[in-house]
Amino acid sequence: MTFVRPAQPLKGRGAASFMAHRFVKDERLAFDDGWGQADDGEDVRALRTQLEWEQCKSALSRHDSPDLPYHLGLNPYRGCEHGCIYCYARPTHSYLGYSPGLDFETRLVVKSNFVEVLCAELSKPSHVAAPIMLGSVTDCYQPIERDVGLTRRVIKVLGQARHPFSIVTKGSGVERDLDLLVPLAQQNLVAVYVTLTTLQPELARQLEPRAAAPHRRLRTIRTLAEAGVPIGVSLAPQIPFLNDDLEQVLAAASDAGARQAFYAVLRLPWEVAPLFAEWLKLHYPDRAQRVMERVRDLHGISEEGRAEGKVYSSQFGQRMKGNGVWADMLGQRFALACRKLGLNRERVMLDCSHYHAANLSGQQSLF
Fold first, then answer.
1. Tally of CB atoms within 10 A around 155
2. Considering only CA atoms, which of 93, 316, 82, 323 is closest in space to residue 210?
3. Residues 167, 134: contact at Cβ < 8 Å?
4. Mean pLDDT computed over 4-20
5. How confident is the model over 294-319, as pLDDT tens digits?
6. DSSP assignment, residue 167?
7. pLDDT at 25 exceeding the cut of 50
8. Per-chain mean pLDDT for the chain
9. N- to C-terminal Cα distance for the chain?
10. Percent of the chain beyond pLDDT 70?
């Protein structure tokens, strides 16, 4: 048994602790010894972002979830410095033996050979072009992209191959790559979605501490829209009693130029549930219990499930939009606001017919 420092809010970080991952066998209990330091002697208040480099075996990830409009994903990084406390990808760090808490947002992995592996996979005769989501489990425009530049190299490869793709991000860094995105948008090869969970700056700073501020994301939407890049807005996740400004967010995004919109309810798989509960108690103790109970309502958790500690349902067809009265009310609010604002009137259809693997034969010139 190991005693560790009790969790406390950390400036610039979403998680408040190195919460153990689900594969750890040793029990760790919080214990305040008065020194305010972690058990290894490191002051977590001054925790720095670390980069690790790995050779990946594959670049394209595939899934068959009926809840998502894409079946191919690209993620050049593991972990995300944005530190969004609600991130459903946090448990993926457990497979590395790292904490899904602070490690997820401070111990980041760069896939050093990602572009070369991607080129090889796209060049296979068996590859069939279909829209790819860039940043499905990590934000491809998180702060480290400014120095590493891996996302830009990926876009160059996709552009050279004329392969359709979408981007979802909270980072304003996407504006840097307008010179690549605009020509692709003119060929119906790219669409961008900016995640905007709330217009409340203080809430955003606590939920997503190192992501762009809400007003900065609105500027990004406007910049891309004016440049002619198909732009949409993601209102994910919706968290009861916290980001309750859904209609205002949609109106602001529409005014900035967004023409598409989607949302998802809060998902709390594996370690995300205790991490989010810990965050609530630190930042919003007065409503923590209410929020968690409404999350259970959104996912239609039965009394038996609540007694077992369930907080959300991972069932296909339910995990993204929820189930029950509260989920239905949220869906009606979203649909009504979109209808009033003219959002989602036309679908963005990316063109797969331009793809040609032979275009990648001279890909070394990109680097």
1. 21
2. 82
3. yes
4. 86
5. 999 999 999 999 999 999 899 988 89
6. E
7. yes
8. 91
9. 50
10. 91
Is residue 82 within 8 Å of residue 211, measured between CB atoms? yes
The burial class, CB within 10 Å (0-12 / 13-18 / 19+), for 209 is: buried
Reported as a single tens digit per residue, the pLDDT across 43-74 is 555 689 999 999 999 999 998 888 888 899 99
Distance (Å, whole) CA 222 – CA 225: 5
Q: In 133-287, which residue ranges form alpha helices assigned H by DSSP?
A: 145-148, 150-160, 178-185, 201-207, 214-226, 246-256, 272-283
The residue ranges of every structural domain in the chain are 2-366
**2-366: CATH topology:** pyruvate-formate lyase- activating enzyme (3.80.30)
At a CB cut-off of 8 Å and minimum separation 6, what does 363 contact? 119, 157, 160
Query: Is 55 buried (19+), middle (13-18) or exposed (0-12) by CB count in 10 A?
Result: exposed
**Res 26: pLDDT:** 61
- Total residue count of the chain as it appears in this document: 367
Q: Sign of the C-alpha dihedral, residues 321, 236, 253, 178?
A: negative
Nearest Cα neighbor of 321 from 242, 238, 245 is 238
For residue 91 the two structure tokens come to 């448990």
